[in-house]
Write a structure and sequence with these properties.
The protein has 295 residues and is of the alpha+beta class. Helices cover 57% and strands 20% of the residues. A five-stranded antiparallel β-sheet has the order 7-6-10-9-8. A three-stranded parallel β-sheet has the order 1-4-5. Helix 1 runs parallel beside helix 2. The termini are far apart.
């Protein structure tokens, strides 16, 4: 057995070697590699040996038939065998390179797939957390809206600049005014156009001052859906945000018509009592004067 790889590009050997067969030598050469081109010479009637040689990896064989002048065939056979051998080696090397590239790509695909799986799991977890947070926010907003709508006031939010358009109005405004929240939101001037003409200038001045102060409160008359006027109290504060976020106003609108009517009734009663008191005093003065005149 050889200790080093075959140092030849092409080997021609007879099958009938002293002490061993040429087929065994071919097998050893092929096992030691790198492979070289091999041509095995066999005797007449050794077709079975030739088949075994080809299966073992021998490139070709030649029957030593003197009648066919086999030695004259070698010069033409050997270059062709060597060419086929080189082609086969080139193809094997290309296949090996392709397998290595495929293995590298498969490894990268597995690694990337693993990374994407982790990222997808992380994303799914974040989506789940976000949905839970959004649901909690929705639940909190619904509870807050329910609380606000049960209060005897209408809450609102609007821009702090420009046309002061409403961005939110609680639904209990309908019970107070007869108008839906959408009426206030769709038309920026919907609220200001319905302020009583005698209160318009005063309210405008109070709003300007309140915006400078950051908060404010005032009473005014406002025309509701049936055409009548009710008294309302508005109080608000300006909410400012850091950065580029736009500031806005949050506030409450309360129907104080009953209070104003009660105050007006109390004032009238007070005026009436004062008038009665003045009449009583005048009566006493008249009685005193008449008494003095009679004496």
């Amino acid at each position: 057995r050889t200790e080093t790889p075959c140092p030849f590009d092409l080997v021609v050997t007879d099958n009938g070697l002293p002490g061993r067969s040429g087929l065994d030598l071919c097998r050893e050469l092929l096992e030691d590699g790198p492979p070289c081109a091999i041509v095995l010479l066999t005797g007449t009637g050794s077709e079975d040996t030739a088949v075994k040689a080809l299966k073992a990896g021998v490139n070709d064989y030649l029957v030593k038939d003197p009648r066919q002048s086999y030695l004259n065939l070698l010069p033409g056979l050997l270059p062709e065998v060597f060419r086929r051998h080189q082609d086969r080696q080139d193809r094997l090397r290309a296949e090996q390179s392709l397998r290595e590239v495929n293995e590298t790509l498969e490894h990268r695909v597995r690694d990337r797939t693993s990374e994407l799986t982790v990222l997808n799991q992380t994303l799914q977890s974040e989506i789940k957390d976000r949905k839970q947070a959004e649901q909690k926010l929705t639940d909190t907003r619904d509870r807050l809206s329910l609380i606000l709508e049960t209060l005897p006031v209408c809450s609102f939010a609007c821009k702090a600049t420009g046309d002061f358009a409403r961005t939110y109005v609680s639904r209990n405004v309908t019970a107070m005014t007869g108008y839906a929240p959408e009426d206030f939101i769709r038309q920026p001037s919907f609220w200001s156009q319905r302020i009583h003409p005698d209160d318009t200038q005063r309210v405008s001045s109070l709003i300007t001052q309140s915006l400078q102060d950051g908060a404010g409160e005032w009473d005014y008359r406002w025309q509701v859906a049936d055409g009548s006027y009710k008294w309302f109290n508005n109080c608000f504060r300006v909410v400012s945000h850091a950065g580029d976020l736009e500031s806005h106003i949050v506030g409450m609108m309360q129907d104080i018509t009953a209070r104003k009517q009660a105050e007006e009734q109390a004032r009238l009663q007070q005026d009436e009592l004062a008038h009665v008191a003045r009449l009583g005093i005048l009566g006493e003065m008249a009685s005193g004067l008449a008494h003095e005149l009679n004496q």
